[in-house]
Amino acid sequence: MHPALQALVVVAVAVGGCIAYFYASNLILDKVLFPARGLNAGRNTTRANLIRPWLFLAPAVGLLGLYLAYPVFATAWLSLYGRDDSFVGFENYRLMFAEPKFGESFFNNILWLVVVPAASTAFGLLAAQLTDRIAWGNIAKSLIFMPMAISFVGASVIWKLVYEARPAGQDQIGLPNALYVWFSGADPVQWLQLPLWNNVFLMVVLIWIQSGFAMVILAAALRGIPEETIEAAILDGAGPFQIFFRIKVPQIAGTIVVVWTTITITVLKVFDIVLAMTNGQWETQVLANYMYDKFFRSLDWGMGSAAAMIIMALVTPILIWNVINARREMR
Amino acid sequence: MDATAGKHVMDKIAGRKSGLVWAVHLSAFALVLLWVVPTLGLLVSSFRTGDQIVGSGWWQAVSTQVQQLAAVRIAGEEVARDGLFVIEGQLFAAGTEVNAWGTSSVQPEAYAPGAVADLDGGVTLTVAADGSFVLSSPATMADLRMPRVFATAATPPEFTLDNYGTVIASPLAGQSIGQAFINTLTVAIPATIIPILVAAFAAYALAWMEFPGRALLVAVVVGLLVVPLQLALIPLLQFHNWIGIGKGYLGIWLAHTGFGLPLAIYLLRNYMIGLPRDIIENARVDGATDFQIFTRIVLPLSFPALASFAIFQFLWTWNDLLVALVFLGTGNDQQVLTGNLVNLMGSRGGDWEILSASAFVSILVPLVVFFSLQRFLVRGLLAGSVK
Amino acid sequence: MADLVLRGVEKAYGEVKVLRDIDLDIKTGELIVFVGPSGCGKSTLLRMIAGLERISGGEFTIDGVRMNDVPPAQRGIAMVFQSYALYPHMTVHDNMSFALKIARKSRSEIAAAVDKAARILQLTPYLDRLPKALSGGQRQRVAIGRSIVRDPKVYLFDEPLSNLDAALRAATRIEIAQLKEAMPNSTMVYVTHDQVEAMTLATRIVVLAGGTIAQVGTPLELYERPQNEFVAQFIGSPAMNLLPGEIVGIGAETIVRLDRGGLARSAVPTTVVDKGLRVSVGVRPEHLRETDGDGIFQGEVAITEALGEVTLLYFTAADGAAPVVAKLPGIRSDLRHRTLALTADPEKVQLFANGTSLLYR
Questions:
Q1: Domain assignments of chain B as residue spans, ordered by start
Q2: Nearest to A235 among C50, C87, C90 (CB)
Q3: Which of C54, C56, C74, C77 to mutate to test the interface with B (most CBs of B within 10 A)?
Q4: Which chains touch A (3+ CB pairs under 8 A)?
Q5: How do residues B217-257 score in pLDDT, each as one tens digit?
Q6: Same domain, yes or no, for C173 and C226?
């Protein structure tokens, strides 16, 4: 069967199945198992109500447990096994730490983690403030936000053209090189091969994408600042920059942190950009790509799992922070 | 009616300097320009031929180019006319407009169109604006070395839809983009609809049903939001192989459902919690079961949140590369648009006309969804993010 | 200390004029209260003085200097906002010193000013707290402290007591009165919708209605000699009774025959041309007293409200008309459903023709 048709059938089956499951299970619970009739009506209703939440939750909990919770442990377990399926303990980690490519990936990831969230949040804040007070603000916001809609691979193609270098003497087709050659007269530069700076140029792509996200959220936060605090600051004699940095930004500090941490998570997952633009060459490798390499090129599932666990370790502080915050809010 | 309602506080106060307002507009414009230019570059390139793209920057494509053309050596049949020996012909392609021309590389723009150049030995040459030339000499030029003509001409902007035609119609890199498009659709739609169903019920339970362990479950969901899906790839691939579905659509639908559930539950629960308590309690007092409350009250009222997540998830699955590479395989008949594009970057990375058109075909649907349903996407992002 | 002068000040949003013909002379040391119903423009007027709204027409000067286009920070003005507008991320001390830091005052100057204000407002133990750790009354004092620290020429208050509960409102009102006593040379402009605040705090009251000034005067002037029916009914609670009638007797004491029967005697002098004039007779509930004779009017008491100190009597009204209200001392619930005749001292009886008081013709 053609997959598209298959998809339609699956959707129909899934939707029907879900509805059927929820309806039937509730029905069985209420009518068969614990009917609200007769002597035990009260007790039955109570019991039914105790069980019912779990009926609602069962599919979700099952899928979550299987697709997200179990793999954490399974990967941890896998990382202790070698290529020949023998238990090797922490050997994989030891080998991995010794590989120069891993060190390069780790260092690059730290670079990405330091630069991208900060830059994206800063640009997002700037964009949010600038577009807040102009008549064409919504259009401006749309255009800056647009890169979030396209795939990372699409973005990679766009920026590959930007960074393109034609041979010396010919017309340049990427703006940076065109400007560079025009101003300095020197030969065009292979931006993505420059040591250390090529990482920055790759980061620009993610900053370009994520700033829109930061902007949307920070714009809403800015709108939420009580106007009277700004009026009070105006009366106190503060200028626009003083108001922005000393009155507005501190009041949205919580939101800034949320934006920062969310982008940090995305940065740790970045894989498509590096894969598409340099595939880790010229010392641009990052952990996610390194892991993919181990899994599907070297077919070394043990080491790949070890790399995955390193990514998990980097993410854990944020995980703990978010959970603590969520619990605090629920109180 | 207050006409300044909605105007920012800074615009209403006395003594405001207009200089600041202009600075804001300019800065905003510069920022937007910076953001739009990269995409614009690729878009313009997708409408140019391969030669054009590599020959000149895309920003030059929109204006009439005055370019120095390559030197052309005159050639043609010599005829006798009016006592002179004449060679006539066309130097350049039709439509070219010659601005200036010359016969030596030192002075390539010595003459205006239509002017007559005196060459050695009484030979005259004239080149017209349309690129036609007349070379005449009192004596035969059979043994003469034909002069070269240098010219600067204005080539008008030239655009083509050929790239899109090529990309859509013919299979490239062993796999047509049309097929990839359908495959991506096949992946995205079920992967969007199924998580919503499962998550809606769970979100309702976590929002409006009392049971022990509820707070813990919510914390678990929040925690799982952060877990990178790279961790799940190998164990799940093994699992899929073990239960016999291997690589394929069923596997990727399940995977995307699993990966999308934390966000779905989080978004939907946040929204459901904000629904008026009175309505739900009223329904309970009236004797409605939780199932009825959910299907008849909460679900319809939660439509904005459902829409937000749907758009989010649709874009996410459409744009995803990693999950597709792992769970769907790279076989030609199952490749999705992102995989297709990555392959093209590798195999035909220099063919910008193909690459740009393919890229835009692959991002067309997300862009349409984005611009038409932006409101919902933004609302989804804001849920729970603004403190 | 400063003199404020407004001449012909108006405010328009597009075509709509929300304020017009505002002429005011505010002298140094006065506490002027802008009072009026919601939407009358009092807050807008205050914000125009502050510079937070532009002045559409007319002139506004402080000490003779034109202020229309001067930015707010340079007007020598400090404002206490309705919701206090404290900077939530700064301590009380930083809130109060913010303006001085912007003005680049020396650290010792700042410390001296903040300490002084904190002492006056009893905020010294709270200097290191954040606003969210303060009660409503304390936050309000910080807002006032923020203004004092800047030693401005004019203090502006925008409904500062609205967000407090009733008991706190009374106590804080006294504190503000005491503050004004302590700063006799400071000019204050105060906006409220509560006429009790207006009557107790103001040196003069400006009653605003429908975008213009209804009357300017001391509290007692407004109470005893209102210029028009609006002011007459706005000041005093319950509102003044207005009974329609026709002038039948002129002279130093005017006699009015009321439409619903009864004769009213007023100390407002009238002349021959006023004979037969249709007027509204205004008598405050607290000025009505029982009488054995016919009095100004007679009626049946429909409802009594015994408040302990006084009793409010609501008389049965003809269809659609507002009931006549009387305020008698003590507990008089015994008067329910009784027919009563009431009279009032002619000095306390006002006369209004076409809405305007005959005293101000």
A1: 65-155, 164-382
A2: C50
A3: C54
A4: B, C
A5: 999 998 998 888 888 888 998 899 998 887 888 889 999 99
A6: yes
Is the same domain home to C204 and C265?
no
CATH number of A93-330: 1.10.3720.10
> What's C166's domain CATH number?
3.40.50.300
Preferred mutation among B45, B197, B226 to probe A, highest tally of A CBs within 10 A: B226
CB nearest to A305's CB, from B185, B234, B319: B234
B122, burial (CB in 10 Å: exposed 0-12, middle 13-18, buried 19+): exposed
> Residues near A108 by Cβ (< 8 Å), separated by ≥ 6?
A199, A283, A284, A285, A286
At which of C202, C234, C266 does a domain end?
C234
Same domain (yes/no): C177, C292: no
Q: Can you name the CATH fold of B164-382? A: MetI-like fold (1.10.3720)
Tens of each residue's pLDDT in chain A, 331 residues: 576 777 788 788 888 888 888 888 888 887 777 777 777 777 777 787 888 888 889 999 999 999 999 999 999 988 888 877 788 888 889 888 999 989 999 999 999 999 999 999 999 999 999 998 888 988 999 999 999 999 999 999 999 999 988 887 777 888 888 888 888 888 888 888 888 899 999 999 999 999 999 999 999 999 989 999 999 999 999 988 999 999 999 999 999 998 999 999 889 888 889 988 988 888 889 999 998 888 888 888 888 899 999 999 999 998 998 889 888 877 6
Are both C341 and C305 inside the same structural domain? Answer: yes
Whether B333 and B179 have beta carbons less than 8 Å apart is answered as yes
Q: C81 CB near a chain A CB, below 8 Å?
A: yes
Quick count: other Cβ atoms within 10 Å of Cβ A323?
19
Q: Is C272 exposed, middle or buried (0-12, 13-18, 19+ CB in 10 A)?
A: exposed
Domain that holds residue C13: 4-234
> B15 and C70: CB-CB below 8 Å?
yes
Question: And the tokens for A173?
Answer: 């087709």
Q: Peptide bond preceding C131: is omega within 30 degrees of 0, i.e. cis?
A: no
A234 CB neighbours in chain C (<8 A) are 52, 72-73
Residue of B nearest to A54 (CA): B205
Annotated domain spans of chain A: 3-78, 93-330
Q: What ipTM was estimated for this complex? A: 0.86
Residue at a domain's end among C209, C234, C259: C234
- Does C68 sit within 8 Å of B14, measured CB to CB? yes
- The total of structural domains in chain C comes to 2
CA B94 to chain centre: 34
